[in-house]
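tool=predict chain=A
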Amino acid sequence: MKSEKLKKEVRSQKSEVRRIVQWLFVFFFVTCNLSLVTAVYAERIKDIASFEGVRDNQLIGYGLAVGLDGSGDKGQAAVLGIINMLSRMGMTINTNDLKSKNIAAVVITAVLPPFAKPGTKIDALVSTIGDAKSIQGGTLLLTPLKGPDGKVYALAQGPVSIGGFAAEGAGTTSQKNHPTAGKIPEGVTIEKEPPFVLGKGNDIRLFLHKADFTTADMVSKQINRELHGNHAVAIDSSAVKLSIPSEYKDNIVGLITRVETLDVKVDMPARVVINERTGTIVIGENVTISPVAIAHGSLSIEVKETPEVSQPLPFAPEKAETVKVPRTDITVQEQKGSLVEVSGVTLGEIVRALNALGVTPRDLISIIQALKASGALKAEIEII
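tool=predict ok
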C-alpha cells in the first residue's frame, strides 16, 4: 500500500512539474513576441524629437570663383569684385584693363552644426549667381560666412568639385549634373562658436519633429518610467518638459544620453499621401475603408488627322491650285466598368482590395479622392 501511495505522489509531482514547465514556456513565448512587436513599432526618442538648443544654423557668404576655362560671367559684376579685392591688397587696376571670363560670382552656403568648435571643418555649397556656364576647375577665394545676426562664424576657400561636366559643339551638347553648382568638401573652417543654451534653469524641453498629442504623452510616460519619478510632462502636442533630477544636475549630457535612447511607440495618424506629378501613392498603416462598391471605367479618345492633297486635273485652267483637304478621324473607346466591393481594416486588406480593381496609379488617385468624398475612406489626404 505504501509503495502504491508513493508512486501516486511521484506521478502527481511529475505532472505538476510538467504543468509548471508548460506555463513557463507559454510565458516566455508571449514575452518574446511582445518584445519583438515593441521593437518593430517603437522608435528612439532621438529619432522623433530633439532637445531644446540642439539645432543647426545656416551660414551664407558672397565670393568669387577663379581659374575657370572661359566659362565665367560675361558681365562686369565678377570683374568689379576682383578689382575691389585687389584694391584692398594695395593694387590699383582700371576696370577697362581687366576683361576676363575666367571669373564667376558665387554664393556660398553652409550648415553650422550645434556645438561646433573653432577649427572644425564642414562642407560648403557653391552656386553661381551670374551667367557663368560652368565653375568646373574653379577655386573659391577666401570668403567669410555670416549668420543671420551678421557676424562672421566661418571662412570658406578651396577647389570646387561639381561632380560632372558640360561640353558643347556646333551641333550638340553633353552635360552631366549641374555645372553651375558644386561643393568644397571640408572647405569651411569654423572660426567662432555660436551661442547655444541647453535648457533653461532646472528644466529642459524636447521638441517633437511631428506634433501629436498621443506621441507627446507616451514620450513623457516612457521617460518617467525610466527615471522612476514624475520628471516629464507633455506641455502640448509638440513639446515635453523634463525637470532635471538632482543626480543629473552636473551631468546633463548623461541625462540626455539616457533619455534619447528610450524606445517609444509613435502613434501615426491615418493619412494617404498623393503625388499627382509622378502618380505616387503612399497609404498609412491606420487607414481604413468602409464597405463600398466602386465602378470605374476609363475613357479613351483618339483623334487622327490625315490631310489629303487635291491636285488640278490635266489641262485645267491656270488659276487652278493644289488644295489640301483636312481629314479627321475620331475614335472613342470606353471600357465597361463593373461594381467591385472594396473594404479593409488592415493595410494588407486595403492593398488587396485596391489591386483587385486593376487600375493605373492615375486612376487610383481619382478613386481615392472619390472614396474620401463619399466618407468611406477614414483618412486624411495630403497632396504634395
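The chain is about 25% helix and 35% strand. The chain has three domains: 57-190, 199-265, 271-312+322-383.
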